[in-house]
Each structure stands twice: as structure tokens, then as C-alpha cells.
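Crash report, auto-generated. Payload:
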Amino acid sequence: MSAVTGLSFRDSGKLGLLLLISPLLLWLSLFILLPHVDLVMISLRERVAAREYAFSWSNYTAFFTEPLYWRTFMRTAVMSILATALTLLIAFPVAFYIAKMVRGRFKALLFVLCLIPFWVSELVRTYGWMILLRETGIFSGLLQWLGWVDQPVEMLYNDVAIMVGLVYTSMLFMVVPLVTTLEGLDDSLIEAAYDLGGSHFRVIWDVVIPHAMPGIVSGCIVVFMLTLGNYLTPTLLGGKDSLWFTEQIYTQFITRFNWEQGSAFGMLLLILSSFIVWAGLKLSRQSFTRVMT
Amino acid sequence: MKNLFKTSTVVLATALAFSAPLNAETLRLLTWGGYAPQEVVDKFEKQTGIKVDVTKSNNEDMISKLRATRGSGFDLAQPSQDRITSAQTDFDIYKPMDLSKLDTDKFIPSMLEATKKNTAINGDVYGVPHVWGTSGLVVNRKAAKGVADYTDLCKTDLAGQVSYRLKRPTLIGFAFAMGEDPFAAYADTDKYAGILAKVEAKLIDCKSNVKAYWSGGDELLNLMRSGEVNAAMAWDAGGWKLNNENADITFVAPASGALGWIDTFVLPRKSKAEEAAYKWINFVMQPEVAAMITEAAGNFTASQGSDQFVNEKLKAQFNESFPPKDIDNIKWYPPVPPGLEEMEGKVLDRVKAAQS
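Recovered output after restart:
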């Protein structure tokens, strides 16, 4: 008798668990898994005639044989890595200052200042940069007013403009994890390091950075993925030479009606970016679970 | 009592929620900016009781949207006449028009016939004409002298002051300006590829002159307005709009011929308000209403006799840009055969990737 009740109790427990995780399972399968399966299916076919498709690897081979696509991807990856490194360089002192040097309301204020730009959409922020950087824009006007240049200068439509926009857009996603990990660092450890005669550089390199490593790596992963998958900023700020891989995917889907090629590019972006993140974790000797929790 | 009150509230609320969409018929229109101005929409709703939901779009976007939903989500769309048969053959997103439901006498006969011919598949007509116009050059005559044809955009003294789109009209325009006839080569893939190769070399060579490739009409207007760009390849209406603000800027029909387009009405395959769609077409083809659309879009319509309702300024601008011989020289887009756009796409990709 007791065994039976025990069983039914266990069953209802199972049912409860099933009910609890079903939204998650539905979400994962309907919105993540199924679309990706469909993406793979579409990427593995080729249009032979109107409304007729056949199995083919050609969309994937096109990526490796057409230098344009391959180069665009490499360019995007290299620029994203560079943008991530720059973001880290700028965000680290900021995060250290917020986490260690200030207290109380001022600290909250600084945090909010980092957050405020994200209250408007990315599109508006990017247009803001366009107003600042364009030939008839504010920076150009300021330089002329100061007398440093004697004619309008164009600062928009180049790789530096893309980089500025990308770093600005992803700053918050680096600052937040860094502040969180740095706050966990006991101040007395830093003091002890100085007491033992460490220079500024040694203290940062041997004490602060090793402790902040999980924050650095998780910030880098988030920023890298956001940058690699960014569409607006490179397209609007980059002008005629922008060439971003997501732009290539958009073009294949929307203006070329070539869903097959676009899907293949989408899958390749997923695979290659996952590989880069994996390589980054291996190089920094961090594990994904440790970094993400 | 309290219960009854609660129940009746719920019933009433439900009834209201369901009756709203039943009472007001809606026409979901997929169109270009300016083709359905608010005053026309209001007038139509007052006359027929049908609400109009306007979504602004462009050729590629329209086809992609309808392809993704297999022809549902909209009741009436307005792609250009040359892009209908290829999209229909490949994706089956439209349904044939019932011409008997249209007041065909309100259309300019030659334009109606041409569109019917260009949008027919196996005898079924898919499109009727609405707005037409051309693309050519928009030039600031003071700052950029001597720009008479597309290839003049590549002159060295215009370096950094030029803009055009990286889309198929640019390829076609440059091909004509280089003395080729791309439309005649539509059926001959090899010959077309040869022409494209020549255009590709020219566009890569010309890239250092380009300030930025524009993608939206407003973007170009801003570049011209601020004086950052002085010569561009663009639509006539944009040029006339700028002419209203700055008399130096206007639309110039290129020596090799402006490219003529006709935007049409087509029915998406799963259109839910077909009757409303026909009503809308008949409504906007009335000369007075067509003139209102001309005012908003800056382009003339296929409505017979609507020009007499259009203001004198636009007519004067049109006549200045198009002396009679230039009208005869307009190159009207023939339907694009399937497959060509893929070749063009690769050319555009390579131009974009080239180092200037």
C-alpha cells in the first residue's frame, strides 16, 4: 500500500517537474531547435529550376571557393576580435574605478551613466554617431572653428568609424561582468601585495587580473558575439567598404532571394564563431561553465 | 445580481472584442512611401468604410515578405512590373487579376496594355499599372558641371562627391551609358555576362569617386541637401523634391536614356480582402485622387486625365527634365528572366568588396 502511494507521489513529482520545464522545452524546441534544423535543410539544397530544388553542398563550397565570402568573414572576425580587445582595454579601468575606488551613491551614479546610452535603441545611438562624424557634422565643424583644419573632414564611412561605433555599443556588456567579479576581490589582497613590495604592474598582473579572469572572459565572449552578429553599426557607419558578414547574410536573404546561400552562411557563422569562442576559452584556460556562472 | 452583472460584463466585453474586426473591413496594403497618402486613405475610408493598413516597402522587400508568408499577410501589393513574372514563377506568391472588376477605361490605354503584356503568365494577367517614373541623374548644377550621363559620375573632378545604389538599376544604367543594350541581351545569358563584366570593371574603377552607396531615398536626399554629394544616380521625384528647396539641384535625364519603371497593383496569393483591393484600385485611379497621389509621391500615375489636376510646378519640373526627345528615349524595363539577378548579385558583391 505504502509502495503504491510512494509511486504515485513520485509520479506526481515527475508530472510537476514536466509541467515546470515544459515552457522551457517548448521555447527551446520551437524557437531555437526547429528553426536551426530548417536552416540546415534549406542550406543543403540548390535551386535547379523554378520551384524545384535538389540536394547539394554547393552553398557551402561557394563559401570556401569564392574568396569574397571567405575574406568578408575573416575581416568580420578580425575586426570583432579587435573591437573586443579595445572594449576590454577601455572598460577595465572604468570597471576597476567603479568597483574599487568609489563608494555609495557616486558608485550608483557612475553605473547609471554607463547604462543611460542603452535606454535608446541602437539605431538612434548609431545615428547620433553619424551626426557627429559626418563631413558637415559636429566634429568636423568644431575642428574648423578651432582653426586646426581649413576644410570639412570626413570621419564617417571608414573602419575607424565602425570600430568607434562597435566599442561604444558593447561597452556596457564588458563593464557589468568586470564590476561584478572585481567587487568580489578582497581589498586586503591588493594591500598585501603592495606591502610585499609589488609594483603597480605586478599587482595588477599577478593579483587583480587572475581574480577577474572569469569576468574578463565572459565579458569578452558576450562582446565578441554581439559584435560579430551586429548588423546596424557596420552597415551605417562603414559606408562603401563596410563588408560585414551579417550584411552578406541579409543581402542573400532579402535582395538576392537566395535563402539557400543565406542559410548556409548563417550556419557557417554559427559554427565558426563557436569555434573562435572555444579557442579563446582554451587559450585563456577557462571553462565555459565557470565563466558563465 | 452581482454575478449577473459580472457575467454580462464579460459577455459584452467579448462581444465588443470580436465585433470590432467584423464591422470594419481592412485592406492591408504593401506599397511604397507616398503611394497611399493619409488624405487619400481617409477619403477612401469615408466613402467605403474600409480601413487601410499601409506598410511601406520596396521591390526586394515586398517579394521577400510575401515569399516568407507564401503570399499571405497582405491584400494588395505594388511591385514594379518587371519583377512580377520572375517572382511568380519562382515563388508562386500572387494570384491573377480579374480585369472585369476594374474600371479599365480609367487607365492610360497604352500603359495598361504594356503592363498586362509584361505581367502575363500563360494568359493570366497579374498586374495593372499605377505609378510610373524614371531613374537617372540628380545633379547640383552649380557644384558639378557637365554631368550628362551615368559614366560622367566617374570623372576625376567629382571624386568623393558621388553617390549611387549598389543595385541592378545602376548596372543597367552604366551598361547603357557604355554603349551596350542590356535589355536586348536579357535572353542571351553569355552576352549579358559579357556586358556585366564590362560594367563591373567600370564600377570598380569608379569606386574611389563614390562617397557612399545609398540605400534609402531619404539618405540620398540628406547627402545632396548637405552638399556632401553633388551628383548621384536617383529617382526623378527625389530630384524634383530637392529642386523645390534648392534651385541648383534637379533631375537630369541621362544622354543614354532615363530608365523607366512602372509600379503596379498585384494581388498576393492569399489576399483576404480581394473585393476591397479592387475597390481601392478603382478609387485611386480616379483622376482627382490620382493627382493627390502624384502630389505626395512626386511621380505621375497611369490614370487617364489626372495631369490636369496636378499642380503647375511639378509639370514645369517634369518638362524641364524631359524635353520631348528625352521622353522617347526612356528605356522601359522589360520583365527580368529568372537567373539574371543571381549573376547581377555576384557582380554587385565583387564591386562592394573591391578596394578603391
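Post-recovery validation: The interface with chain A takes residues 60-61, 63-64, 67, 87, 89-92, 160, 167, 207, 210-213, 226-228, 338, 341-342, 345, 349-350, 352-353, 355-356 of chain B (CB under 8 Å).
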